[in-house]
Specification:
The chain has three helices and 16 strands. With 245 residues, it is of the alpha+beta class. Strands 1, 2, 3, 4, 5 and 14 form a six-stranded antiparallel sheet that branches. The longest helix is centred in the first third of the chain and has 25 residues. The termini are far apart.
């Protein structure tokens, strides 16, 4: 009799556990918070952003949201939000004008997006975004390898609203997937790998104003700050000497 009672109890406990795990990790996202709740999160004592205006709410997919904002000091910032552990969480934010890349899935380049938010008085026309791999030399399993430099770029309009985003181009995605596969296949020599690590790519940017200037867009002149996550990365501002002509 005890055995007959014990089995249903185990089944009930199992079903409750499965239900809780589904609720916590797999349930569909709830409605996204209202703007006042978003501002309160960014303005809380831990983050101390000082948001004056939420400019937009942009869904990249049903679980990842990009929100540009303006601070009380006229800084233009970006914030990334994601549905995780049954709640909408602030993943990262920045009050600087430097573009960032959000790698939603680190292993899937098609989920990588570049975002920006510049003050309109910078009078920007377009951005040139770069994927660059420096020339390098490496030794693996006693074999010497020379890696040629790679530079890929494309232009994207800044837009009248000053903020925007773009998915990385398909050509970049193909290259990054090939590089990921190559890096996974490499078994570096334990000694030489420390001195000659295989070079990897990085992302950079330049801006061009409506007057044709390519100087760093520094208006307003205040220091940016933020909190990043493992899935976000600042793009490097590139001068004329940093790119292949």
């Amino acid at each position: 009799m005890r055995k007959k009672v014990f089995v249903p109890l185990l089944l009930i406990l199992f079903l409750i556990t499965v239900g809780l795990l589904y609720w916590y990790y797999l349930s569909p996202p709830a409605a996204f918070p209202e703007q006042e709740e978003i501002k309160a999160t960014l303005n809380d004592p831990y983050n101390r952003v000082g948001v004056a205006e939420i400019q937009d709410t942009i869904f990249l997919d049903d679980k990842h949201v990009y929100i540009p904002f303006i601070t009380e000091e006229e800084g233009h910032g970006i914030s990334f939000w994601e549905w995780e552990k049954h709640e909408w969480q602030l993943s990262s934010y920045s009050t600087g004008s430097t573009p960032q890349i959000w790698k939603i899935d680190a292993d899937d380049p098609s989920s990588h997006y570049i975002m920006w938010n510049f003050h309109p008085e910078n009078n920007l026309d377009y951005l040139t975004l770069y994927l660059i791999k420096e020339r390098g030399f490496s030794v693996s399993e006693g074999k010497h390898h020379y890696d040629p430099g790679i530079q890929m770029d494309f232009r994207t309009e800044v837009g009248e609203r000053s903020y925007g985003y773009t998915a990385i181009p398909s050509e970049w995605q193909e290259y990054m997937e090939a590089e990921n596969n190559m890096m996974a296949a490499i078994v570096p020599d334990s000694f030489f790998a420390d001195f000659f690590p295989p070079p990897q790519h990085y992302f950079g940017w330049q801006s061009t104003g409506t007057d044709g200037s390519t100087e760093y867009p520094s208006y307003p002149n205040n220091n940016g700050f933020g909190r990043g996550g493992s899935s976000t990365e600042q793009l490097r501002f590139l001068g004329e000497n940093d790119i292949f002509q």
